[in-house]
Request: fold
Amino acid sequence: PGLVYFLIFYVCISLSIVQAPVPAYSLMAMWNFGRMFLYYTLIFNAIRSPADFRTLLWAVAFTLMVQCLFSLKLRYLNGVHQVTGLFDHQNSMASWAYFCGLPMLALGLSRHTRWNDSLVYLAGFASSGVMVILSISRGALIILALGSVAIIVHATFQKLTVKRGLAIAATMVLGSFVILMSLDSILDRFVGSEDYQKKNNLRTVLEEISSEMLSDHPYGVGLNNYNVVNSRPYRKYSSMLERWDERRGYYFSEEYYERNPNTENLYWMFLAETGYLGFTGLLIVLAYSLFVCLRNYHNYKDTPQGSFILGLAITLGLFYMHSQLE
Reply:
């Protein structure tokens, strides 16, 4: 499903390579998108029965558990403050965790799911919650909380069974316990963080730089080339970041600005890198993905697949919001 829309998106973002100062970076991103499409196609064609779907879900749940154990090891044995797991950044791990975990919660609370499967899915969700908390990613913590509440409220208004009641109670108790265990770190991130004051917010500056790039290059600066154009020796955009540092009383050498950060707003990143054309392709794929979830939930709502789709639809909607921040 969505093959034509994905190909439209792929062509739209690929055209920005003409503008790219380092085409090799654009080609690398195009390869990653193509590889993702290949994985999607292979998995879609491999699932031929409910048993195949169940096997995939168990694999996702156990993957979450393994990643959670590694994250706990990093936090409590290695003393890592913001845990990244097997990812290169804590925000990446947290986004992956709730993206996989919230559908697990919807499945675990479904009256159409068998008891043994529910336990596995809820263990997967619990693992995702632990990872998000250990990452101390503010956006992901809020998204996980909102998604969990939405799914639990939906489950409560359905036919309440003993399994659902126990699962909801256990989820709330476990979530409260884990949050209390990490409360000091969470409060430090939310309350003590200076960069959440707008004048010191790096995100705001990077979005202003993205806007300037789009104004100068309506077709984009090149897929996966934001960091290149935003850094020295390309002075125009790097100077905006340098002036921001100076206003805050920080002065660094020129070499410090040779690897400036990327914007954390997905939409501004696509606008800056691929222009209006690539951004339109992105919106088409995002909108169609959510539409397919909502349509198929109506068709499969009395099956475990329907519960998974519901969780996925909620997760997608929240992820679209979260993408404005990280």
In short: The CA atoms of residues 233 and 296 lie 50 Å apart. The mean pLDDT is 87. The two ends are 28 Å apart (CA to CA).
